[in-house]
Amino acid sequence: MNDKNRVSEAIEPERYEAFAPPSYHFEFARRDFLKAIGGGIGVFLLVRTPAAFSQESGRQGFEMEPLPQNVGAWLHVAPSGAVTVFTGKVEIGQNIRTSLAQQVAEELRIHLDSISMVMGDTLRTPFDMGTFGSRTTPTMGPQLRRAAAVARDMLIELAAKRWQADKKRLVAENGKVRDPATGRALSYGELATGQALAETIIAEDPLTPPSKWTIAGKPVPKVGAAEFVTGRHRYPYDFRRPGMMYGKVLRPASFGATLDSLDASRAKAMAGVVVVHDGNFVGVAAPTPEAAEKALAAIEARWNTTPQISSNELFAYLKDHALPGDPDHEGPLGPARHSAGSLESGMAAARKKFAQTYTVAYIAHCPLEPRAAVAEWRNGKLAVWTGTQRPFSVRDELAGAFHLSKESVDVKMPDMGSAYGGKHTGECAVEAARLARGAGKPVKLNWTREEEFTWAYFRPAGVIDVSAGLGPDGRLVAWEMHNYNSGPSALMTPYDIPNQLVQFQETKYPLRQGSYRALAATANHFARETAMGELAHMAGTDQLEFRLQHLSDNRLKAVFQAAAMKFGWPRRKAGLGQGFGIAGGIEKGGRVATCAEVLVDPHNGNVHIRHLVVAFECGAIVNPDGLNNQVSGAQVMGLGGALFEAIHFADGKILNPRFSQYRLPRFSDLPQIDVVLVNRTDRPSAGAGETPMVGLAPAVGNAIFDATGIRLRAMPLAPTGVKKL
Amino acid sequence: MPIELNVNGKNYSVDTSPDTSLLTVLRDHLELTGSKYGCGEAECGACTVIVDGDFRRSCVTAVAEVRGKPVTTIEGLERDGKLHPVQQAFLDAEAFQCAYCTPGFIMTTVALLRSNPHPTDEQIAQFLEGNICRCGTYPRILEAVRRAARAMASGGAR
User: Fold this and answer.
1) Which of A177, A424, A598, B86 is 20 to 30 Å from B61 by CA-CA measure?
2) In terms of CATH, what superfamily is B3-74?
3) What are the chain A neighbours of B126 within 8 Å (beta carbons)?
4) CB contact under 8 A, A290 and B24
């Protein structure tokens, strides 16, 4: 078991990212700091355990400096009674502005409306690694609850002193401290007036157990939702600064191209246009977007190109370019590997043997809002408003690009039009800042859809080999799985198999790749749960029964059973082309099981997912409505990658960089989706943005097999329908 | 020559070329940023506005085409500080996550309910096929449109 934990820690983290080591120096003594902002009560959270971060984010570059003043977040009760929470986490549609405020409201015993959240602003909020990996709910949530609980106790203490009363009998409720014995009450604002009280906490202060939650745990609407239905909310794409110009960047002819020659004289001659040429970077700034486009079009450039890998040779390329496992040659994470028992003797004991290869294509995140940034220089300092999941990392990127101290850069993150793991990086911010420096004015740079498709990064493609052996009793005796390139998340099988070897193998790869919602957990579940489907078929055992036979994780069993019950598993086929499938697994502390019903059109092979049941358990539920929205949305997003999304590329160019060429899930793809939430108030809350999607593709693939007898082993499963083999 | 526009009941004179997209004019000349850019090729519906009573994808509409015609954007739906029933329905159904697509869905829905006040679920899905919600909140959007239709039928119509 220890061995298992150790390995899963090593193979969990986010990868494919180049990080600068973060550091945060809190400049003021906290009491002075509070005085400077007008007094009140502050609770500062110290992050003491770098281990928690390295687990989250990989080995490389994540060693936190052991700063004694390392604040993770803080909370302020102003003399006005206003409560402000400062966190480096960001809101990208996953609804944490609401769910975090709910948890603070819960502990502080105040109404949700009294809380404002300052998020993802590198000058105003404490350092945060970034918003990814489903870490907000399990880490930032409890931390803020602790801070709120301490603030509540401080307020009670202040009231006790004021009244010379025993603090034990005082209660905090509705933004006031009340003495039930005398009926006296003081509002938090009255108590905070004239104070400059700072408290520093580490952890382990008592929290209200989820079973007693009254605000957290309830479905509350998105904070500030009216701003969104009226169009008033300013996304990064909408953000403006006085006197700003509009930027455009000249893109290379293909990946890996370098600038050979440039003639920008016509663009330079245009009224109000500034051309910036700096190495391979060429861009323009102009008074209007139309003028910027015109100026860009007037630039003539020649590029030196180099041969590039194309998508039709992708999978062979990945397998042929595995990086050596030699420790001297290992990549950022090295080969992630887990073994148990003896694969050799397991295979020798097998009555039936199985070996198959699964592939996963490159896909694009396609957040509806592409990258956008407004950059402004003032007295050698740089401010950038941009959409990113990692404002502090973008700050470091900017500081590095322009040789500035981190303190000279401020990155602000207006709540953005989502990301799904696709906005960890600051390309657009750096480009906007370079243009702004050249123009001597603030510059706004909004990427087009085509730029977002081409110059951001993709979910890694992968090849996954699975081999396995069934013993005489029809149970698995051996399991081997090798993942080339797509990533190590959820590589470990949750099934009890005595002899196994699983390994993630880094390879060279042709396209820029990075995080994507659920990371490689989607690919690894696709391969594993499809193989489990094939093995159950081979063993002649029911799909659900076969899985349960190999499971000792009761939480995973429980979601499988919950999904099966809601779905009515096993179901009898009622018509031609109908099929049922099931799949599930464990990832990021959550448990998911998915049942799918598909209809395959017997004439054209088109697949329609008709019905999905998803049972999900992530510990204690913080906001059931928000969670339901996440789980359901993950199915809709996931069905694109499962059925038809794929990036095609050749000669260093993306061949389908538009929505007219890259199909996304639309209304007509929508299945009936039933979400079954298993609430475990006895368990800590785990994140929920990612894991619910990992069972979808294999459940659908298994259902297609049930419908047609055709086994599909490539994601996307049926971009042009199921064809007879 | 400046182009005369009527947007949300107000007259504007915009100095740009006639082939500039209506979306660019709305967002960058008039600073009405509620209409969103998503694709630039009428594939996602985030830029949807209403021109002369019918919905238009403003990203592929040349500004000259709407000269003198009444244009309504998401900013022009409220009346006397009160949300349009479709806005209210999206709010009540919490039919969004990041909500970047929401203005486009709301404008398309306004057009739908104007031409078909009692759509079936199938008709709703068909009408909204040109709008993308990448967060995948379609089931809630469907519910929001149903609610809006009910609300407008019972007196909230405009």
Assistant:
1) B86
2) Beta-grasp domain (3.10.20.30)
3) 667-668
4) yes
